């Protein structure tokens, strides 16, 4: 064990001075090459956070034997979509407003996608609701 400690100490003594000379150069290159992270974070989070809030979503059935007119609240925080009421909701919204969501309540499951613009959104959904295959459209408004 003492042999390794001496060889490491010798390595550090001989190479440490040579590499220490280059440390300021590497630091300057890193500063010039790296973006301003605070500015990048501000720009990136502002675009996604534009959709934050509670969205009231109304589902209309266009195909299948499922009831129409259900209203379900969703929460958007950053790029994540989650439930603001009952059921399991998971999804994402992009900076451009493209949204993809999966919902499950009991044995019923559905997924959909669409777009959010300002305080309005619309898209399509499909799933199995109480054993019936159904599909349709959805519209959302932010409260």
Q: In brief, what are we looking at here?
A:
The protein has helices at 2-33, 37-49, and strands at 53-63, 70-77, 80-83, 88-93, 98-105, 108-117, 120-129, 132-142. It has 143 residues and is of the alpha+beta class. A hairpin with a 4-residue loop joins strand 3 (80-83) and strand 4 (88-93).
Q: Can you give keywords for this protein?
A:
8 strands, about 30% helix, Lipocalin, about 140 residues, 8-stranded antiparallel beta barrel, 2 domains, disordered N terminus, alpha+beta
Briefly note the structural class of the backbone: alpha+beta
CATH architecture of the largest domain: Beta Barrel
Rg, nearest Å: 27 Å
Total number of helices: 2
Please, what is the oligomeric state? Answer: single chain
Order of SSEs, N→C? HHEEEEEEEE
- Alpha carbon gap, first and last residue: 68 Å
The total strand number stands at 8
Major pleated sheet:
8 strands, antiparallel, barrel
The CATH H-level homologous superfamily of the largest domain:
Quinohemoprotein amine dehydrogenase alpha subunit, domain 2
CATH class of the largest domain: Mainly Beta
| Strand adjacency order, main sheet | 1-2-3-4-5-6-7-8
* Shape category: globular
Total domain units = 2
Overall mean pLDDT stands at 76
């Amino acid at each position: 064990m003492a042999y390794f400690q001496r060889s490491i100490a010798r390595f550090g003594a001989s190479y440490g001075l040579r590499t220490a000379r280059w440390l300021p150069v590497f630091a300057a290159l890193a500063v010039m090459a790296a973006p301003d992270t605070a500015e990048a974070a501000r720009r990136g989070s502002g675009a996604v956070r534009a959709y934050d809030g509670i969205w009231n979503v109304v589902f209309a059935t266009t195909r299948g034997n499922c009831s129409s007119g259900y209203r379900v609240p969703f929460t958007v925080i950053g790029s994540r979509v989650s439930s603001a009421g009952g059921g399991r909701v998971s999804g994402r919204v992009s900076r451009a407003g493209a949204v993809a969501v999966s919902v499950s309540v009991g044995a019923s499951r559905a997924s959909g996608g669409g777009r959010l613009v300002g305080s309005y959104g619309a898209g399509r959904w499909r799933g199995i609701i109480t054993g019936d295959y159904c599909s349709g459209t959805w519209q959302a408004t932010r409260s």
